Amino acid sequence: MEKILEITNSAQKFRDLNLIMFTKPNTMNNYGYVLEELGLKQFLVKFQINIMQKLGNWFFNDWSYEFDDLHAFSIKYKDGEDLSLDNHMDMSELTLNMCLGTDFEGGELLVKNQREQNQNQQYQFTVEQQIGSGFLHAGQHWHGSQRIKKGERINFVFWSRSSKFRGSVQENFYYICKNKIEKQGENLKNLKFDL
């Protein structure tokens, strides 16, 4: 992961000199890089196959259909730039968010329910950002980044996606469908016929 930090630092020099216009990492972050634009495509594909797919199969079976698409990027939080990130869900089935550096205070990750979970049973917890550590979560977990208080924080974010999952009925209504199916099953179990 140190190599990614080194490459993004080099890209920053080109950006500062207005030599290259880079794509924003996503629709919510203004600072960072799409890592495929920095020549890392081959590494990212291998990372998806050898790391993300296995982690997904182990820890997030509901979301870990065969991954066949990815979006990987760096994001940066710093005074005068992005300081925090509002509550959102990712455009992924599985997300890995790793803190690369540098020297900062604050900016904890706030994690909440998955998309259609019962909001009456809402939970949330914070994840302290520590250099070299990461947080793996379903892309459909509501989450955001709290305000950075001091310094500069850079993160590597990897979104794994599955066209099979995205093309399924589950994609937009995963928990709604799951609850309906469970409820229909209960109704069928209690159904009685008078002959």
Automatic annotation (TrEMBL):
<dbReference type="InterPro" id="IPR005123">
    <property type="entry name" value="Oxoglu/Fe-dep_dioxygenase_dom"/>
</dbReference>
<protein>
    <recommendedName>
        <fullName>Fe2OG dioxygenase domain-containing protein</fullName>
    </recommendedName>
</protein>
<keyword id="KW-0847">Vitamin C</keyword>
<feature type="domain" description="Fe2OG dioxygenase">
    <location>
        <begin position="66"/>
        <end position="162"/>
    </location>
</feature>
<dbReference type="Pfam" id="PF25238">
    <property type="entry name" value="OGFOD2-like"/>
</dbReference>
<dbReference type="GO" id="GO:0031418">
    <property type="term" value="F:L-ascorbic acid binding"/>
</dbReference>
